[in-house]
Prior knowledge:
Strand content: under 5%
Radius of gyration: 29 Å
Distance between the termini: 79 Å
Amino acid sequence: MSIGTNIYTLRKAKKLTQGQLAEKIGVSEQAVSKWENGLCAPDVSLFPILAGFFGVSIDRLFGFHLNSYSDEVEQIMKAADDSQNTYKEIEIISEGLQRYPNSPDLKIYLAFSLSMVNRFSKDENERKEAVKKALDLCNEVVNTCGDVEMVDRAFNMLRRIYCEIGEYQKALDAIDRISAQGYMHRVVGQAQVLAYSKDYAEHAKFTEENLWRCYLAMDSLLELKINSLTETREYEKVPVWCSARQKLLSVFDDGCPDFYISHKLWNCNAKAQAYKKMGEKGKCLEELRNFVDCTKYFKPDAKGEYYQLAARNPIYFSNISDPGSQEEYMTAIYFDKWLSGYDKFFGDDAEYLQFKKGLVD
Length: 361
């Protein structure tokens, strides 16, 4: 494989245009085009820059060891893990970096091991040297690696190290530089900085607000997944996803068993519809009963503020001040018309008829 073809493959893997790659390494777009089309090769001075940007060895840049590179790096990290000794880890990873000096995985791993030395060493000079080297390794990844995910991991490691040495503002600065796709590192990282700095009031506010956002996002994603499975007629998968969603919807029930009751209700509906499509009357009727049980929590004369979710469960969400953060959209359920859609499916089924009679009584 020519170096031009390999540059093309590595560029595509990072979803970069020729212009974007050119800008990042300080050459013209035409130069990148010529390399990839085999018209010329990069100047030798660019080899370490390209290798560093892509996070690969120069050997790999030339196409050598393409299939074994990742496996060998993983084997090095596994050997370090298996050693179960921090100093041995440092030795193994350092030797690995001599073979693969541009590997961001190895640099971040070594930074982590060095940060552990800072935790347990009683030698102040050793601790300081370990921290400095760990920070340098992370900054090397940030400044030379073109892989966004690896750069995010390096920033997250910087956050961890700065927290442990008490430089909280630098930790927050590192978090601010994490990309949008590193959302988890951003949220969890900031919560950890607040915990390390013992800012408990701000920590409580931040964790509750972000937990709330994640909860709502998970609920929406589960609902969309269930809808898509229904649309593609994969009905046998719907009950499994509905069960997962039910567990999520019930996770904050302590002190508030009707928490997010409207979504629990429509989740039962989705499950019942799936069983109807599969012809499973017994399971369908069970979900109809669950549906009706949910309706008992709705108050016909309730005002809108009753259904402000966060306000209804201060056990978990005492720091969410905005009562409009999420509102259930019904204050009464009229399900007679909805339930009649099951009449044809059940026909003269005795259990179903008894169930309907019980609703009237």
